């Protein structure tokens, strides 16, 4: 289940679809956005073909992640954003100014497993884990973790921005009010195997959560 870091390759180019095209376009913009924010972003890890075909879990080595860094892993052909959130970013998630602008700040809609139905939408506040597909039309949002008065939009508080139609999410994947996207970014099943290994696609012991039960991806 372990895997190496490699290039982005979300779909078979021999059978292009609208979503495949959006993956390519937004992934290209994502590279620009990553440089613009000066926050390192690793490319996805690429599990072996048999693991992907079976839809099985994939492991990520967290020991290589720096605070503020995001890694994109591939699980069931979905890009999964894993972000290491330092205390400063976590404090921002509780800012009343931010919360007042969110459509579902308490994650009441069924877009996550029960262990992620909290203000940080995760099993461990330090690590955010969300499926990086906009709940509007399936584009891939870009990572802009730092607050900025003008970029990518006016009054930016930090999080994810979808360049296709302007949907906005905070660093917990919570969607803003008044944007095209109707729901928070989905949270996949996952668990911590140990202090340095995150396994995407597998629930913690004793917990049953079916990713197919989410409202929208």
From TrEMBL:
GO MF, one example: oxidoreductase activity
Cofactor note: Binds 1 [2Fe-2S] cluster per subunit.
Compartment(s): Cell membrane
InterPro entries: Rieske_2Fe-2S (IPR017941), Rieske_2Fe-2S_sf (IPR036922), Rieske_Fe-S_prot (IPR014349), Rieske_Fe-S_prot_C (IPR005805), Ubiq_cytC_Rdtase_Fe-S_su_TAT (IPR019470), Ubiquinol_cyt_c_Rdtase_Fe-S-su (IPR006317)
Bilayer topology annotation: Single-pass membrane protein
Obligatory cofactor(s): [2Fe-2S] cluster
Catalytic reaction(s) noted: a quinol + 2 Fe(III)-[cytochrome c](out) = a quinone + 2 Fe(II)-[cytochrome c](out) + 2 H(+)(out)
Top-level taxon of origin: Bacteria
Its EC number(s): 7.1.1.8
UniProt-listed Pfam families: Rieske, UCR_Fe-S_N
Keywords attached to this entry: 2Fe-2S, Cell membrane, Disulfide bond, Electron transport, Iron, Iron-sulfur, Membrane, Metal-binding, Oxidoreductase, Translocase, Transmembrane, Transmembrane helix, Transport
Domain Rieske: 94-199
A GO CC term assigned to this protein in UniProt: plasma membrane
Residues spanning the membrane: 21-42
Subunit description: The main subunits of complex b-c1 are: cytochrome b, cytochrome c1 and the Rieske protein.
PANTHER family: CYTOCHROME B-C1 COMPLEX SUBUNIT RIESKE, MITOCHONDRIAL
Function: Component of the ubiquinol-cytochrome c reductase complex (complex III or cytochrome b-c1 complex), which is a respiratory chain that generates an electrochemical potential coupled to ATP synthesis.
Miscellaneous notes: The Rieske protein is a high potential 2Fe-2S protein.
NCBIfam families the record matches: Rieske_proteo
Protein name as it appears in the record: Ubiquinol-cytochrome c reductase iron-sulfur subunit
Source organism: Afipia felis (Cat scratch disease bacillus)
């Amino acid at each position: 289940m372990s895997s190496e870091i490699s290039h982005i390759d979300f779909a078979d180019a021999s059978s292009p679809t609208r979503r495949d095209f959006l993956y390519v376009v937004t992934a290209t913009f994502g590279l620009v956005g990553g440089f613009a924010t000066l926050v390192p972003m690793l490319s996805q890890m690429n599990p072996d073909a048999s693991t992907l075909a079976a839809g099985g879990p994939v492991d990520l080595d967290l020991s290589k992640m720096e605070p503020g860094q995001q890694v994109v892993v591939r699980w069931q052909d979905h890009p999964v954003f894993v972000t290491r959130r330092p205390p400063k970013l976590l404090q921002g998630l509780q800012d009343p100014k931010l919360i007042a602008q969110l459509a579902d700040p308490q994650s009441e809609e069924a877009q996550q497993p029960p262990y992620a139905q909290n203000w940080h939408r995760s099993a461990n506040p330090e690590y955010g884990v969300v499926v990086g597909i906009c709940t509007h039309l399936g584009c891939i949002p870009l990572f802009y973790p730092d607050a900025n008065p003008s970029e990518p939009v006016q009054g930016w508080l930090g999080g994810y921005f979808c360049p296709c139609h302007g949907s906005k999410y905070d660093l917990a994947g919570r969607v803003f009010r008044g944007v095209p996207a109707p729901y928070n970014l989905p949270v996949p099943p996952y668990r911590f195997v140990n202090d340095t290994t995150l396994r995407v696609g597998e629930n913690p012991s004793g917990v049953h959560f079916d990713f197919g039960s989410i409202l929208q991806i």
